[in-house]
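Q: I'm building a small set of examples for a reading group on sequence design. Run inverse folding on the following structure and report the sequence directly after it, with nothing in between.
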């Protein structure tokens, strides 16, 4: 993490400056072998904001990742060596990975110019969504979940083949530096509209899909123009900027895993729903609540599928069903490229965190199935996933979306309408091999 003072100066003076460079900032992958070693890392996490933890030191962490500025690397390595904690350098110079992150140009009025080996900025994504609405006027409606602090539209699409269907709601990009999430859900949008795979077509037909690729547009723009590793929104608080929008929801707000310090990467804001992005999204969700069957909150990284709640490891609500459905869907995700995912409760699998989106959705909207995805990878590149992994990530994630639907139906969820018999019938008739994995 950049020292707070330097970061503040940087942001204050950065209105007209060049994009910040992370030359010789190093990503460490730390491999603690017991709880004592975890405690050393937790102490560092709690007491020292110079280091940017990408995976937190939770009690059962397989690994912890942390970025250090060049001038603090000796101190960090010294602490790890003195404590006997194993670590490896995942990336010596993260600026190299940033330089390789190709950002594509989208050609207006040509939906096929959106490529899956490029990242895109906000204007490109929004232009593409507008073009999809023109290309598929009977299926795609542009929707808005309000405006951000800086006045940007929180734009999404509704894909619907007719009125009255149950809803699958996908929210992505709330942590702005997690670029793989907008790319992955844009790919899902493209598949729902253009795929000829019968299972994908059935999924598109059977549900109303609400998909918001970038729910933190101000932060996302900032990652493209000024500071690649920005996570929060861009609202100023004193001399600091930004609230962690995934700690600002009105569900056990500020109870665990969040901060009252505006300079913290986990700053929860001055109160629940203090931020326009979360408040407007909540207002948008409430009238839809009765129809939402499945809510997906897209994050990276770690290859995890997480189930509410973030403040307790107690198996609340329909936890066991959600776990079983999720585990099976992650099996389907691994078929294509062998990518392993772990499924579990937020608090046990990743961190104690409250005020998070999915907890509010589960607690207040009573949506039957609610998940967080933490997409690729497991500590090699973290938030700087190379562009040649965009398509594989998006493909395997789409596989899992379809299997979530399939498994949910097996467990008695998402069964409204007669779509199950139609989609299974089509698979049998066409002899689609994908069916094999369901048997
Ligand atoms: Zn995130």
């Amino acid at each position: 993490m950049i020292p707070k003072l330097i970061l503040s100066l940087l942001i204050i003076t950065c209105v007209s400056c060049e994009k910040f460079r992370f030359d010789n900032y190093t990503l460490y992958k730390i491999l603690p072998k017991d709880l004592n070693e975890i405690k050393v890392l937790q102490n560092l996490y709690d007491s020292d904001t110079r280091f940017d933890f990408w995976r937190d030191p939770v009690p059962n962490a397989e690994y912890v990742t942390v970025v250090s500025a060049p001038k603090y690397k000796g101190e960090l390595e010294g602490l790890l060596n003195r404590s006997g904690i194993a670590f490896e350098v995942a990336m010596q110079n993260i600026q190299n990975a940033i330089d390789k992150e190709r950002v594509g140009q989208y050609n207006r009025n040509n939906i096929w110019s959106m490529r899956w080996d490029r990242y895109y900025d906000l204007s490109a994504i929004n232009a593409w969504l507008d073009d999809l609405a023109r290309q598929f006027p009977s299926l795609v409606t542009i929707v808005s979940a309000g405006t951000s602090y800086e006045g940007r539209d929180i734009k999404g699409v509704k894909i619907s083949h007719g009125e009255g269907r149950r809803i699958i709601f996908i929210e992505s990009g709330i942590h702005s530096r997690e670029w793989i999430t907008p790319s992955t859900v844009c790919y899902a949008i493209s598949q729902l509209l253009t795929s000829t795979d019968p299972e994908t077509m059935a999924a598109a037909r059977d549900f109303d899909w609400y998909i918001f690729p970038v729910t933190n547009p101000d932060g996302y723009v900032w990652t493209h123009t000024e500071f690649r590793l920005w996570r929060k929104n861009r609202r100023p608080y004193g001399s600091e900027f930004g609230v962690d929008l995934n700690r600002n929801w009105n569900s056990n707000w500020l109870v665990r895993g969040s901060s009252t310090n505006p300079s913290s990467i986990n700053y929860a804001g001055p109160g629940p729903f203090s931020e326009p992005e979360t408040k407007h999204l909540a207002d948008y969700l409430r009238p839809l609540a009765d129809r939402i069957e499945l809510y997906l909150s897209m994050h990276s990284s770690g290859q995890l599928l997480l189930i509410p709640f973030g403040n307790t490891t107690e198996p609340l609500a329909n936890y066991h069903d959600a776990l079983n459905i999720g585990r099976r869907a992650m099996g389907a995700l691994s078929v294509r490229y062998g990518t392993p995912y772990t499924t579990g409760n937020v608090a046990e699998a990743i961190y104690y965190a409250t005020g998070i989106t999915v907890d509010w959705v589960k607690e207040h909207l009573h949506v039957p199935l609610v998940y967080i995805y933490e997409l690729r990878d497991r500590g090699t590149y973290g938030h700087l996933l190379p562009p040649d992994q965009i398509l594989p990530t998006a493909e395997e994630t789409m596989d899992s979306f379809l299997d979530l639907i399939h498994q949910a139906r097996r467990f008695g969820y998402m069964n409204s309408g007669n779509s199950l018999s139609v989609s299974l019938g089509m698979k049998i008739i066409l002899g689609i091999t994908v069916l094999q994995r369901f048997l």
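The chain has two domains: 4-99, 111-230+244-438.
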